[in-house]
Amino acid sequence: MTDAQSIVTAASQLSEQERVLVVEALLDSLEAPAVGDPAAVADAWRQEVRRRSEELGRGLVKPISWTEVSAEGERILEGGN
Predict the structure, then answer these.
(1) Based on the domain organization, do 42 and 74 belong to the same domain?
(2) Torsion region of 49: left, alpha or beta (phi above 0 gives left; psi -120 to 50 gives alpha)
(3) How many independent structural domains does the chain possess?
């Protein structure tokens, strides 16, 4: 059995709350380099902006005004569906 398999086996014996903590810690460890690297973050944003612009240009998505977004956010926060 590899170290990873041993860890997974041991982690599966933990309570649900403890397993959530382990998963969050592992995810944080994967995300940490991108967060600490401003160039990587900037590149990711450039790619995201490019992707969204292409979707708009091809008519795959419909733009929504800030007024609509804000109203929808308030509705959700007030408990509406």
Answers:
(1) yes
(2) alpha
(3) 2
Task: Assess whether 22 and 44 both reside in one domain.
Answer: no
Task: Calculate the dihedral angle through the C-alpha atoms of 61, 67, 72, 78, rounding to the nearest 10 degrees.
Answer: 170
pLDDT bracket for residue 33 (50, 70, 90): low
Q: What are phi and psi of 77, to 5 degrees?
A: -65, -30
Total-model pTM: 0.44
The amino acid present at 36, given as its one-letter code, is G
DSSP single-letter state for residue 15: -
User: Are 23 and 46 in the same domain?
Assistant: no
The answer to whether residues 40 and 33 touch, using CB atoms and an 8 Å cutoff, is yes
Is residue 44 domain-shared with residue 10, that is, in the same domain? no
Determine the structural domain holding residue 32 and report its residue range. 1-36
Spatial separation of the C-alpha atoms in residues 65 and 15, rounded to whole Å: 45
The residue length of the chain stands at: 81
